[in-house]
Design a protein that fits this description.
The structure is a homodimer. Helices cover 34% and strands 26% of the residues of chain A. By secondary structure, chain A is α/β, with parallel strands linked by helices. Chain A has helices spanning 16-31, 46-57, 63-70, 72-87, 97-100, 119-126, 152-164, 197-205, 213-221, 277-287, 316-327, 358-368, 392-402; strands at 3-8, 35-40, 92-95, 102-104, 113-116, 130-134, 137-139, 145-147, 168-173, 194-196, 226-230, 239-242, 256-260, 263-272, 292-297, 304-312, 335-339, 342-348, 375-379, 382-388.
Chain lengths: 409, 409
């Protein structure tokens, strides 16, 4: 008998029929003798409906009140799922974040979990009750309702699993696991049986949308055994996210190819290569609340250098504006050039640490396809390149094949 | 400066535009220097939507979980109204029933309020904050969410007003007050400036839907000054519900004519006139959870009598079934006759206590219109008659005129 925390996302509970299907799945686990805690999201579309109502009332809704409104989506789902289980003869009980209580800080709309009181849940589980917990929400010290921000239900599930020292935290979603890359781009993409936390973090931060990145960090920190599964399949085993490289059964050097076309590239050209120049450029960008991803500065020639960085494509115009108004003349840059039509492709794998030649293989593969590399950045377990976005699919497919990730391989 | 509790029903907050209109009204009262507590219902249609979702999951939803789901309707409204006020520069803060806390018993879906902790509300009011409270809901001793049943928001408002010893509890609705009868039936119907609690109770229980009957009882018990007003009018004074007959400015004998076509009549004929026979008939009806309204038994002839009673029309078939299966043979009744096409018309007024001749005037008026009276029942301040439902409008209009209630009068 194991203690399992399961999390079902919005699509998995998107209609009464889907909620009944989730109930059936929970009942199978319960009937097998396991203790079950189920964390659920709002029915798909519901959170957007609630936020749209708020937007009709206020252009910038008060964050505390927005959380009061937004948190109702999950509250509806927990009640519906609990009544489905009870209807089928199982013991079940729903809990809002406040009822648990999932204590958070008071950063409304993006609160962070401080602690979880697991006493009531433990008592229910001991009595054979399936515990249903509203994801995405908590309560601050003063009893105000808080939400964890978009995708926060994953974090709720992992935090509950950590508090209960659950044997496994299963994240049910509309995909059946973590893939070597997006199967919509590369039909040969393979589901990974295991992936390490570090790889998962790199892939999540690089645009792979399977899990919210904070939930992966949380799981890594508290050593929660995490598994991603499909709620639309009967008996998939999904992808297990492991702590140690050694736990990996597949010893592939590279686990996956991630990509992201949400960025834009900016290059500040001909700036004097002296201390403080990077800050002079990126300080005003940070003050304008623009997040910067990659930053590259080459060795200088003639005391002059170029500094390139990428920003979210939505903030590209704003960033160019900041540079042209506040930075360009001050640091005497010769030019500021931007390109929004780029993409970032990343090769991720813990095996990279101990294998030489991954970088050169990457560059050779892209060269053979005639793809020019505009920027390069590396970490211990990933290599990212910025290329023209029109080559994205071509690059992802070529790299997927080159690193032996194709299903046939 | 007064402490005012205002309550807005579902139609009054039925859309973002309506919520903004409510905010404007609240702001006018606040700007005039009053302390404001606002109790709101779910947006119209929302509670039905939530109950329909539950019905798709379960034919008889678990009551605790049903309350978890149903209570979200009001929670959305409080957040939206608070953000509207904040957007307009007012201080406002929303409270769910649990946050207040409105302590109830644990009779889910029809809970009763036990106590209200008014400390947080008082602190907010003292600081100039408009307090927005979710109607219809509370929390039991164990922290479970409860609801008060349909129309419970009126009761919430009155209970909050009682706890705060508010100067006035204003119930905003889609009518501008309490009328002498339904203006859709009698165009000459007049709005009453005042009506006593007893009259209001009789009218509410007789089918006049302006206020939930429990809220009127509550207001009477705790001496809450209650006023019914329209949320669609700018400056109506509505109808004030008074405690004492003396407070009434209008000294009319009769305050209004109520009517109800939701009942059906059943007569058990030819039963032996001996002790226990009424119980033998109505006991099984009560055990089948069928509510009985009027009960009439005539003096007997030849040791035999007839017993008639009315039930809700929805339960008519069930009641007939109970009588035919469990009662008829046992008590040796000669026949059981039923009629679902009846209506009840009632004349209500505290002045009736001290005025003779109201009954005879009622009967004469109906006789002049050729309307046969099937059943009669009286209380200190009302006379009810059961007649064929096809005469309902005719009877109401004739009585309205006869008792001088027409606007022209």
């Amino acid at each position: 008998m194991a203690l399992i925390v399961q999390k079902y996302g919005g699509t998995s509970v998107g209609s009464p029929e889907r909620i009944l299907a989730v109930a059936k799945r929970v009942e199978r686990w319960r009937a097998a003798g396991h203790q079950l805690v189920v964390v659920v999201s709002a029915m798909s579309g519901e959170t957007n409906r609630l936020l749209a109502l708020a937007k009709e009332i206020s252009t910038s809704p008060d964050p505390r009140e927005l959380d009061v409104v937004a948190s109702t989506g999950e509250q509806v789902t927990i009640g519906l799922l609990a009544m489905a289980l009870i209807e089928h003869g199982f013991k079940a009980r729903s809990y809002t974040g406040a009822q648990v209580k999932i204590l958070t800080d008071d950063a409304f709309t993006k609160a962070r979990i401080v602690s979880i009181d697991e006493q009531n849940i433990r008592a229910d589980l001991a009595g054979g009750t399936v515990v249903i917990v509203a994801g995405f929400q908590g309560v601050d010290e003063d009893g105000n309702i808080t939400t964890l921000g978009r995708g926060g239900s994953d974090t709720s599930a992992v935090a509950v699993a950590a508090a209960l020292k659950a044997d496994e935290c299963q994240i049910y979603t509309d995909v059946d696991g973590v893939y070597t890359t997006d199967p919509r781009i590369v039909p040969e993409a393979r589901r990974l049986k295991t992936v390490t936390f570090e790889e998962m973090l790199e892939m999540a931060s690089l645009g792979s949308k399977v899990l919210q990145i904070r939930s992966v960090e949380f799981a890594g920190k508290y050593k929660v055994r995490l598994r991603v599964l499909s709620s639309f399949e009967e008996d998939g085993e999904g992808t297990l996210i492991t702590f140690e490289e050694d736990e990996k059964m597949e010893k592939a050097v590279i686990s996956g190819i991630a990509f992201n076309r949400d960025e834009a590239k900016i290059t500040v050209m001909g700036v004097p290569d002296r201390p403080g120049v990077a800050y002079a450029i990126l300080g005003p960008i940070g003050e304008a609340n623009i997040d910067v991803d990659m930053i590259i500065q080459n060795a200088s020639a003639n005391g002059m250098t170029d500094l390139s960085f990428t920003v979210n494509r939505n903030e590209y115009t704003k960033a160019m504006d900041v540079l042209n108004r506040q930075v360009k003349d001050q640091i005497k840059a010769t030019d500021i050039r931007g390109d929004a039509k780029i993409c970032k492709v990343s090769i991720v794998g813990v095996g990279m640490r101990t294998h030489a030649g991954i970088a050169s293989k990457t560059f050779r593969t892209l060269a053979e396809e005639g793809i020019n590399i505009q920027m390069i950045s590396t970490s211990e377990i990933k290599i990212s390149v910025v290329i023209d976005e029109k080559y994205m699919e071509l690059a992802v497919r070529a790299l997927h094949r080159a690193f032996g990730l194709d299903q046939a391989a």
